[in-house]
Design goal:
796 residues, alpha+beta, 5-stranded antiparallel sheet, 5-stranded mixed sheet, 10 helices, 18% helix, 24% strand, globular
Length: 796
């Protein structure tokens, strides 16, 4: 009995210490937050915890009554701030609830004088009320939209004729219109739950000591006939048998990387066959390179290879090798990187590439070029920063340094012979006082060029004077859509980092969905300027309200308080808040609500499936000074190998730091969800449903299956079977969902991160779903070298 009493006293002392320390922390932090204009709750919480500690120390049962009132008020305050959002409620209530539960245990309250029955009852009632609120919030998520496509929307409609076999996936987005939609339906919403792994292939391409942080496996393989073609992160091209996954051949361009490369990435390859071969029903031995694969490589080269054997196409460039560094200023390997597959027409290869972001003003050009598809001869150039964009430089001349580049995949309309290129901004990105009118003219928007001549068709700017790295980051998607009046319109969808999806008539670039100019925050850094307005599309996943202190998050009340202090310490006036020396909260963040994956459009049902994400970043300008020279020293070896962290921005008055907005514990400071899946009825632009996707299983210290809604890199792929597939999330899964309502139908555990877009194809009468699972260096997912295919089991 004596030992039990001693234990109780020790536990009471520890409880008092915990309450007292928590009280001091919350009171001091709360005063700091209040001075910044934040919530007064934490001051009250700190005082209550201190008083509770004192009352427990004095063995007063009223401590339980006081805490009961505090817990009840905290629960009501939490509901007032964030509604019935379970994951937003948890940091407000987890420690608060469990401390109340702890002091209600007999080992604690029995140390108090008798007569505390009322206090214990009140605390028990408050605890029950909190549990009921949390239980209700599990099933009533205010962030989700639980709609269903109507019968008319789900009805069978006339099939779009894409001019390619249903069984194939011959381009990055299946078609060069970037739809990521397959008319196959053998796998459908009724049987997708039966999918099993059919085969796995390992490429053998893994991270080396010479690679930068951002080594990524973002490839979407293509399929033509009975063969799959894919590139690895180091741009090794591999041909596989589509039925068995057995290797047919491979080509290694011998890419030599170093840690200054900003990317080691290959999103895909392109396919071309000569018209003579395309018209043949059967060809037992086609001519060498009559069917060819076009491979972009991060050192600024482009290869043409025979699709049957992997042999170089001798008549193309220099024995199958095209040097994209020709006439390029500052031509250093890794500074100009074609990371996305080029557009291929019947005459032209249209190729563009990424340049190193935020390193200096002495970077390669973002020029877009057209090369003869057979010979590799340069046919035209469009230099986005030149006075005459179509001027082809002479032998000793160069394209314009630092001109806006196009790094994401482009789309192509064969009927209009128009290629649609997503365009970024002149680097450095986060300060633009040095930009000329020519550098601004074709920056951050969608550029439409005649694919044969390279002449301008039109340009639409999605962000004016971009200071936030809001490049158009994804392949645009082309579709012919019936509007609400029944008129069929040829449109292009432009997913952007801001969360807007701009909808334009692809013939002339005029908005089909209104995108009015709206006033945005002002007050640029010294020497810079700002656009007074920015376009806001009416089709958007951009949050309707600006972030507030109540939107800050954390694993506990303690780091949530720090996040609220950090939030109120930063400059933030909503989207397009200018970069600053104070530090600016950028939301939507630099990573973007939409990234390189783009969207998937079911062209038959005229429905888009999207996967926007919401993760704020912080940018902070660093003025030049003794420790921040305007030019690199002689020992500087080049880029940092990452797009986050300290970025020098040599040549302009400021360096910059770019980082996700995280708590000291490494959790996002914005409350979840950080990622969604959603469906849009393209005839009305209504968001039909929106759901969280992804768990913290592979990103938390303990593998918990909590579905919070995770950040993503990759895109959905939709099929005519009323099912779509997506990996992309920060947990290692491939999942299948019902297109009509967003309900999950199936999932498979991947051996590594699946930051890629899946594809599907049919061979020998059997449909397969395929995903590259190789992980993503800067996303922090598990690296690997896997290609995994799934299919329905054989019917017995």
């Amino acid at each position: 009995m004596k030992n039990g009493t001693s234990l109780s006293r020790v536990l009471v002392i520890l409880t008092v210490l915990f309450a007292a320390l928590s009280g001091v922390y919350l009171l001091v932090g709360g005063i700091w937050l209040a001075k910044l204009g934040g919530s007064l709750y934490y001051i009250v919480a700190g005082l209550v915890m201190l008083i509770t500690a004192w009352l427990l120390y004095r063995r007063r049962a009223v401590a339980l009554l006081l805490y009961a009132i505090f817990l009840l008020c905290t629960t009501l305050w939490s509901l007032w701030e964030v509604g019935s959002d379970f994951w937003a409620l948890t940091p407000r209530l987890d420690v608060t609830f469990f401390f109340g539960l702890w002091i209600l245990l007999p080992i604690i309250w029995r140390t108090l004088p008798s007569g505390g029955k009322l206090a214990r009852g009140a605390l028990a009632a408050s605890l029950v009320f909190t549990v009921l609120v949390l239980a209700y919030s599990v099933f009533n998520d205010p962030q989700e939209i639980n709609g269903t496509l109507s019968a008319a929307q789900a009805a069978a409609v006339e099939k779009n004729q894409q001019g390619i076999p249903d069984a194939d996936w011959p381009a990055y987005g299946r078609t060069q219109q970037g739809t990521r939609y397959s008319p196959l339906s053998q796998i459908n919403d009724k049987n997708v739950g039966e999918l099993k792994e059919a085969w796995t292939f390992r490429t053998g391409d893994v991270k080396t000591a010479n690679d930068p942080v951002e080594i990524t496996d973002e490839v979407t393989p293509i399929k033509v006939g009975d063969s799959l073609y894919l590139c690895t992160p180091h741009q090794k091209l591999i041909a596989l048998d589509a039925a068995s996954g057995k290797e047919k051949w491979r080509f290694d361009p011998q890419l030599k990387t170093n840690p200054t490369f900003q990317h080691v990435t290959c999103r895909g390859v392109s396919y071309y066959e000569t018209p003579a071969v395309a018209g043949q029903i059967a060809a037992s031995q086609p001519a060498l390179c009559a069917r060819r694969i076009i491979l972009p490589v991060n050192d600024g080269h482009l290869y043409a290879l025979d699709a049957e054997t992997g042999a170089r196409c001798a008549a193309f460039g220099d024995n199958g090798d095209l040097n994209l560094q020709a006439n390029m200023p500052f031509a250093t390997a890794g500074a100009y990187e074609p990371t996305s597959p080029p557009v291929i027409t019947d005459k032209v290869i249209v190729i563009a590439g990424a340049v190193t972001d935020n390193y200096s003003t002495r970077e390669p050009s973002g020029v877009i070029r057209g090369f003869d598809v057979n010979s590799g001869k340069l046919l035209w150039a469009f230099d986005t920063g030149a006075k005459d964009p179509n001027k082809v430089p002479g032998v000793d001349e160069h394209y314009t340094a630092n001109s806006p580049n196009s790094w994401a995949p482009a789309a192509y309309d064969a009927k209009l012979d128009t290629v649609y290129l997503p365009i970024g901004v002149s680097t450095p990105d986060i300060w633009g006082g040095n930009r000329t009118p020519e550098m601004e003219r074709y920056a951050t928007g969608l550029l439409a060029l005649n694919a044969t001549s390279g002449k301008l068709v039109w340009f639409y700017q999605t962000v004016h004077h971009d200071l936030w790295d809001m490049d158009v980051p994804a392949q645009p998607t082309l579709a012919d859509i019936n509007d609400k009046n029944g008129n069929k319109l040829p449109v292009v969808y432009i997913p952007t980092k801001t969360g807007d999806i701009f909808v334009l008539d692809r013939r002339d670039g005029k908005p089909v969905t209104p995108a009015p100019e709206m006033q945005v925050p002002q007050g640029a850094a010294k020497g810079d300027r700002l656009s007074p307005t920015q376009p806001y599309s009416e089709l958007s996943f951009r949050p309707k309200a600006h972030l507030q202190g109540k939107d800050m998050w954390g694993a506990t009340i303690y780091d949530q308080l720090i996040c609220r202090v950090m939030f109120h310490s930063l400059r933030y006036e909503g989207p397009f808040t200018p970069p600053s020396e104070q530090g600016t909260l950028v939301f939507p963040g630099n990573l973007g609500m939409f990234e390189w994956g783009g969207i998937s459009v079911d062209t038959d049902r005229q429905v888009a499936v999207t996967n926007p994400m919401a993760l704020p970043f912080v940018s902070k300008l660093i003025p030049r000074g003794p420790g921040n020279p305007i030019e690199p020293d002689q020992g500087d070896k080049g880029g940092t190998g990452s797009e986050s962290g300290i970025q020098p921005q040599y040549g302009v008055p400021y360096g910059v730091t770019l980082n996700p907005f995280l708590s000291p514990l490494g959790f996002p400071c914005k409350q979840p969800s950080w990622g969604y899946i959603s469906a849009v009825d393209l005839k009305t632009n209504d968001i039909v449903w929106k759901k969280r996707i992804g768990t913290v299983r592979d990103s938390s210290p303990v593998p918990l299956p909590f579905k919070m809604g995770m950040p993503m890199l990759g895109a959905p792929m939709t099929t005519a079977g009323n099912v779509f597939f997506i990996a992309a999330t920060a947990d290692n899964y491939l999942r299948a969902f019902n297109v009509s309502n967003g309900n999950q139908l199936w999932e498979a555990r991947l051996p590594a991160g699946g930051q890629a877009t899946p594809m599907t194809y049919e061979v020998n009468g059997k449909q397969y779903v395929l995903i590259a699972a190789g992980g993503h260096g800067s996303f922090g997912t598990k690296l690997g070298d896997y290609i995994v295919a799934y299919a329905l089991p054989e019917q017995k």
